[in-house]
Specification:
The chain is mostly helical. The chain has 20 helices and no strands. The longest helix has 30 residues, at about 340-370.
């Protein structure tokens, strides 16, 4: 298990952390291009592997690239989006993450029926991702750079041009001057942008915000989604007693709910807010995990097993509604511009760390405590509810610079949600 799961996730951790400094030096597009190129090299090496050593090295390289662009893309999206549409723009990540997982599992299912001795049975599924990486490499520079990063590095005229295009107004419009002034004021208030700033509090409560971003991303994993998704075939086959072929069909069908959930999230996130989606997702996922613990117990009848399958599908759907794209939105929004790349690198690394932990613990958990392992995730989702409610301020409908103001007015960890709640009551 170690070389196939652990090394990819270890690469993802270091790939994310590499963007702490590189993201602010080279900009969002260049980092996405470089990280995608690294992941492309890893995919080529995997698909062409002739030894276990090459395969293991390829997994690490693939993880490095994947970690880099996963840490950067949400930042780029959030800095290009308006306050009114930022949530729906970035939360589309959930649609594409779910679609990618679905495509991968259906390809895997199709090649499951090819005799194992045939090289194409395992080489083609590994090579298919090369096509997607090539698409990114071809088109990433056709999109604009982040205007906020351009302002940060002093390229004001380029930033002005991009902001005008995004807002569909002339470059000399007063609104563009106001936007640039607001971004510059936010930069002045949040320090030098050095890595150590992220671990200081200051008037902008930078460490507080880094913790919130990391916690949000941690929630995405400790709710149990990867334990369910990546071990779905095992759950259907060994826990629910379904035959191998049907187990693989169900495991491939389950992530089809995720693009739908991502679509629901993108339609609602800017209307109901990030907090509501996270709270709703955690609540429903808690209930489904509790039901699974009972319906998969020894001696459960066929009816209970049908309920268990339904719960797994609901769980997969609600994960995308409440967490898949939402936490990436939140982590990117909550961090100030000066340390946004660094904070998102650390928070994305937290995704990989908790993913790594669950990948190692889940097989042991299912083998040792069997169906009671679901209770662990019922408990973690229960813990998410008060944490989000009491500590996470709502960020919808506010510009990134206005979110900075909320933390500037805060004196303690409980203040940001209260301040945002008061603003919403008076219609700000």
């Amino acid at each position: 298990l170690f070389p196939y799961t652990t090394l990819f996730r270890s690469g993802g951790i270091f790939g994310s952390l590499a963007c702490i400094k590189l993201g602010d030096i080279h900009g969002r597009r260049r980092i996405i291009f470089a990280a995608t190129l690294v992941s492309l090299i890893g995919a080529v090496l995997m698909a062409s592997s002739f030894s276990l050593a090459q395969f293991i090295v390829a997994r690490v390289i693939l993880g490095l690239g994947t970690g880099g662009y996963v840490a950067t893309v949400p930042v780029w999206q959030s800095e290009l989006s308006s306050a009114a549409k930022r949530g729906s723009d970035v939360s589309t990540l959930g649609i594409f993450i779910g679609s990618g997982i679905s495509i991968a599992l259906w390809i895997d299912l199709g090649f499951y029926f090819i005799p194992g001795g045939t090289a194409v049975a395992w080489r083609f599924p590994l090579a298919f991702q090369i096509v997607l990486s090539l698409m990114v490499l071809c088109f990433v520079f056709a999109f604009p750079e982040s205007p906020r990063w351009l302002i940060k590095v002093g390229r004001l005229e380029e930033a002005r041009s991009i902001l005008a295009a995004l807002e569909d107004v002339p470059e000399d419009a007063e609104t563009i001057d106001a936007d640039i002034a607001e971004i510059q004021a936010s930069l002045d208030a949040t320090g030098t942008g050095s890595i150590k700033d992220m671990f200081t509090m200051g008037s902008q409560r930078l460490f507080h915000r880094a913790v919130l971003a990391s916690a949000a991303q941690m929630f995405q994993q400790i709710n149990g989604i990867n334990a369910i998704t990546f071990y779905a075939t095992t759950i259907f086959e060994q826990n629910l007693g379904i035959d191998p072929t049907k187990s693989r069909i169900l495991a491939a069908a389950m992530p089809l709910t995720q693009p739908v959930g991502g679509w629901v999230a993108s339609l609602t996130i800017d209307r109901v807010g990030r907090r509501v989606l996270m709270l709703a997702g955690a609540a429903v996922m808690m209930v489904t995990m509790a039901i699974l613990a009972g319906t998969t117990s020894e001696g459960a009848g066929d009816g209970a097993l049908i309920v268990a399958v339904i719960c797994l599908f609901i769980f997969s759907f609600m994960f995308t509604v409440g967490f898949a794209g939402v936490t990436f939105v939140y982590a990117a929004e909550i961090a100030p511009l000066q340390v946004r790349a660094a904070v998102n690198s650390v928070s994305t690394a937290m995704v990989w760390v908790t993913n790594f932990l669950l990948a190692e613990v889940t097989p042991i958990g299912f083998s040792s405590i069997k169906n009671r392992y679901y209770i662990v995730f019922a408990a973690t989702n229960f813990c998410i509810l008060p944490l989000v409610f009491f500590f996470f301020p709502e960020t919808s409908g506010r510009s990134l610079e206005e979110i900075d103001e909320v933390f500037a007015r805060s004196k303690g960890v409980f203040d940001p949600p209260r301040i945002r709640s008061e603003e919403r009551r008076v219609g700000k």
